[in-house]
């Protein structure tokens, strides 16, 4: 036996524990992950989704008219779009750690300010501020944390970060109604107090700007000449995904309560089911992506969403509607880490490029989410309150998104194959392109 082979044999098993140790999340990584989850919970999960169950009480308590309450809901969407656009410019003015702390404080202050309905303009401004903080945090939170995470654990960690959105959805159907028993004023103050507590707990968890030197980039080889087209397609697909999800956010409870004649209590139960599923969605989606790649996981998610929304349009059976609710609840926040991870697959080596691409994707989603809210409301009103028409529009958007992704990645693989064929056949490829 040669000395080379004899030496190589014992090295293989000794390297495996070292690699596993390197891929473990240390204390700082866990603190950063929990800080990211707290950020998404405060600025998106609570700031957006906790408002919906408060609307009837805002009207009944004569704080605002029904029309004004809808306008105030739109203020958060408008702020979210502004935050998605301004997140990167703001990051150029302050270190990420300081900016994320400031944004969480702003959201907490907005909750407290909303406990005092001084005027419609006052309330609108603070709802806008909470939306702006949410949009900026969505742009910055993951791209500030993931460079500090081992490549093999980034799917799991991104899922944990966006778990905060799911927790907020779940709280909107459980904790917020419980707080409402104390009164509107107390509910807003309670949300503000919870946000301040989460801000304090996450204060020292945010990572520094520079990642550790031993954190490796994903083993992905990309083709810069062709990735631009795939990225542009991904932005459009994410925007279409918003068109597919908004019908459920807008109409699920009303569809069950009035469309299926089940009543408001049963409708609220389905919203709780939606919220519970949303808690599991991000981590499950991220863990799946770690196993099969973000591209494949993303296409599976698009397919499941399309089937679920189509099911709502075609069937009113309680069990079928419940199954669709679980799928859509899981994937409403679950799609976020998949799109973010897909961007990291396509741009594996440039943090600046990753942040710019994620900002564009978030902006596209925010814009079409806002447009969908108004567009579907118009369609619903002018179609004789046809739930099926709205759900079918969402289905079509998701099917188009899935088809676009399949076509874009087929072209990408074809171009990549041509590039590899043109290289020296004796050269060994550095890595495999994941689609």
Automatic annotation (TrEMBL):
Pfam families recorded: MFS_4 (PF06779)
Record GO terms (molecular function): transmembrane transporter activity
Lineage: superkingdom: Bacteria
Ranges where the record places region Disordered: 1-22
Keywords: Membrane, Transmembrane, Transmembrane helix
Keyword Metal-binding: no
Major facilitator superfamily (MFS) profile domain location: 31-412
Gene3D superfamilies in alphabetical order: MFS general substrate transporter like domains
A GO-annotated cellular component: plasma membrane
Residues that span the membrane, as ranges: 28-51, 63-86, 98-118, 124-143, 155-176, 188-206, 238-257, 269-289, 296-314, 320-340, 361-380, 386-408
Comp. bias intervals (Polar residues): 1-19
PANTHER family, per the entry: PTHR23537, SUGAR TRANSPORTER (PTHR23537:SF1)
Protein name (database record): Predicted arabinose efflux permease, MFS family
Organism listed in the record: Azospirillum oryzae
């Amino acid at each position: 036996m040669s000395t080379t082979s004899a030496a190589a044999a014992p090295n293989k098993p000794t390297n495996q524990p070292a690699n596993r140790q390197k891929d473990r999340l240390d204390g700082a990584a866990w603190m950063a992950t929990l800080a990211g989850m707290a950020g998404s919970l405060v600025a998106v999960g609570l700031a957006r989704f906790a408002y919906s169950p408060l609307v009837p009480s805002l009207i009944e308590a004569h704080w605002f008219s029904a029309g004004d309450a809808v306008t105030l809901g739109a203020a958060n969407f408008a702020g979210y779009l502004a935050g998605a656009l301004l997140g990167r410019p703001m990051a150029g003015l302050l270190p990420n750690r300081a900016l994320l702390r400031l944004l969480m404080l702003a959201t907490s202050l907005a909750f407290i300010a909303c406990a005092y309905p001084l005027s419609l303009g006052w309330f609108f401004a603070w709802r806008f501020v909470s939306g702006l903080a949410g949009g900026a945090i969505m742009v910055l939170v993951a791209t500030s944390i993931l460079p500090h995470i081992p490549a093999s654990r980034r799917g799991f960690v991104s899922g944990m970060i966006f778990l905060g959105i799911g927790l907020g959805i779940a709280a909107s159907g459980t904790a917020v109604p419980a707080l409402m028993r104390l009164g509107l004023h107390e509910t807003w103050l309670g949300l503000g107090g919870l946000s301040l507590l989460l801000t304090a707990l996450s204060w020292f968890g945010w990572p520094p700007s520079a990642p550790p030197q031993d954190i490796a980039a994903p083993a992905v080889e990309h083709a810069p000449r062709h990735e631009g087209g795939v990225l542009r397609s991904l932005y459009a697909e994410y925007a279409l995904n918003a068109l597919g999800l908004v019908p459920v956010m807008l109409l699920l409870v009303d569809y069950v309560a009035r469309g299926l004649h089940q009543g408001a209590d049963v409708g609220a139960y389905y919203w709780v089911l939606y919220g519970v599923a949303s808690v599991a969605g991000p981590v499950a989606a991220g863990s799946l992506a770690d196993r099969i790649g973000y591209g494949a996981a993303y296409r599976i998610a698009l397919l499941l969403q399309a089937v679920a929304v189509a099911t709502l349009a075609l069937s009113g059976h309680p069990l079928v509607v419940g199954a669709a609710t679980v799928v859509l609840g899981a994937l409403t926040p679950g799609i976020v880490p998949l799109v973010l991870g897909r961007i990291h697959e396509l741009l594996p080596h440039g943090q600046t490029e990753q942040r710019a691409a994620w900002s564009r994707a978030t902006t596209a989603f925010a814009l079409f989410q806002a447009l969908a809210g108004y567009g579907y409301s118009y369609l619903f009103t002018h179609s004789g309150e046809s739930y099926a028409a709205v759900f079918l529009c969402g289905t079509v958007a998701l099917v188009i998104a899935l088809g676009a992704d399949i076509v874009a990645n087929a072209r990408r693989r074809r171009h990549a194959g041509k590039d590899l064929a043109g290289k020296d056949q004796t050269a060994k490829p550095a890595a495999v392109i994941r689609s």
